[in-house]
Write a structure and sequence with these properties.
The chain contains three helices and 24 strands. The protein is mainly β. The protein has one domain: Tachylectin-2, Chain A (5 Propeller). The longest helix has 17 residues.
Length: about 350
């Protein structure tokens, strides 16, 4: 009996005690968290949100293999990752019929673009854009992934492409690697992108072209031990003259929410100056975590393996609050409401600012 007790003390208790509870200390500026569900697409994830023409619009990602109804609505589709849109009411509840977008000017199966991923809705000059990544396949072999800028129009027939521009080069150099999670923002009527966060490298899209030009790059002394800083939401201009956006990072670790080591995704916020060189000014000192961010896992596993994911994609603001739409576990959509002032005050200043 003593040996059994000793075994439990030495092996069971220390192991469980070493597990990290990510939800032990939640962000104080969080006001409310709610789930967004689309009955037609129960495993939709990675939602982006904007207010356009006085209404809330949500984009979402779906995996074709888990939704046979997509084939019946669009015919034969070769890709396995698609992006859809749905209107929301003021309580962020879906209204009307969701629409899966055909993001190619060619029939889907004749197009080289196969896997639309990580859509971000973005409004500039009252025009609606969808920024997303897509893999280009040549002779059925995966090649580079390019960023796409699609302008969308809306009529009684639904949403349709007005223009579709893959970004194939910047500064005259061809894109030759995986391109995802660029951070769009508007500056002086043009579309700019945060290409990387640290260094904070900024591109400007040359209107009407497939090219971005390099504008500036700054480096910040940031300590963030939760993985590489990568893009998340578009950036919005705040009343105090700074841009605000939310980023993501990822790191393999073991938590009470996973039980074993696996990749965990984290969310944080950052601000940068409103004019070139767009230097970073403030950043979250630790991951932003709310109750339920990592718990409540129901056994669903995406085809790319086990993960614990909080992935920010969309951002809204009014005078007092900020909302961020995010994907959870790659099969759910959520939106978190922040007290704007408390959130901004929680960000740590970066040296030099």
């Amino acid at each position: 009996m003593y040996l059994i007790y000793l075994f439990c003390v030495l092996f069971t208790f220390p192991l469980s005690a070493a597990f990290i509870d990510l939800e032990e200390s939640c962000e104080a500026s969080i006001v409310e968290i709610q789930r967004i569900e689309i009955p037609e697409y129960p495993h939709a994830f990675n939602p982006s949100i904007v207010k356009w023409k006085g209404r809330y619009l949500l984009s979402f990602r779906v995996i074709e293999a888990s939704m046979p109804m997509v084939k019946s609505s669009l015919g034969s589709i070769c890709g396995d990752s698609l992006i859809g849109l749905v209107w929301l009411d003021d309580a962020f509840k879906p209204i009307g019929t969701p629409q899966i977008l055909n993001l190619s000017i060619f029939p889907r199966c004749e197009s080289p673009w196969k896997k639309a991923e990580e859509g971000r809705l973005f409004v500039m000059n009252d025009r609606l854009y969808l920024i997303y990544a897509d893999n280009k396949e040549i002779d059925h072999s995966p090649a580079e992934s390019w960023l796409h800028i699609a302008e969308l129009g809306y009529s009684c027939d639904g949403f349709k492409l007005r223009s579709h521009l893959p970004i194939v080069a910047y500064n005259g150099a061809s894109v030759a690697c995986r391109q995802k999670n660029w951070v769009p923002f508007a500056y002086q009527g043009d579309m700019y992108f945060g290409y990387t966060l640290n260094p904070h490298r900024i591109f400007r899209h040359i209107p009407g072209s497939h090219v971005c030009e390099d504008i500036c790059s700054t480096y910040a002394p940031i300590h963030w031990p939760w993985g590489q800083l990568r893009g998340g939401t578009p950036a919005l201009l705040m009343d105090d003259g700074r841009y605000l956006a939310f980023f993501h990072s990822s790191k393999p670790m073991t938590t009470v929410h996973s039980g074993v080591e696996m990749l965990h995704y984290f969310m944080g916020a950052y601000t940068f100056s409103s004019s070139p060189p767009f230097a970073l000014t403030h950043i979250s000192a630790k991951p932003i975590v709310g109750k339920g961010f990592y718990s409540g896992y129901d056994g669903y596993e995406p085809y790319w393996g086990q993960l614990r994911v909080v992935f920010p994609c969309g951002i809204l603001q009014d005078d007092h609050f900020i909302w961020v739409s995010y994907g959870r576990q790659d099969h759910e959509m959520w939106i978190v409401k922040f007290d704007k002032q408390r959130l901004l005050e929680s960000l740590a200043p970066i040296a030099g600012h």
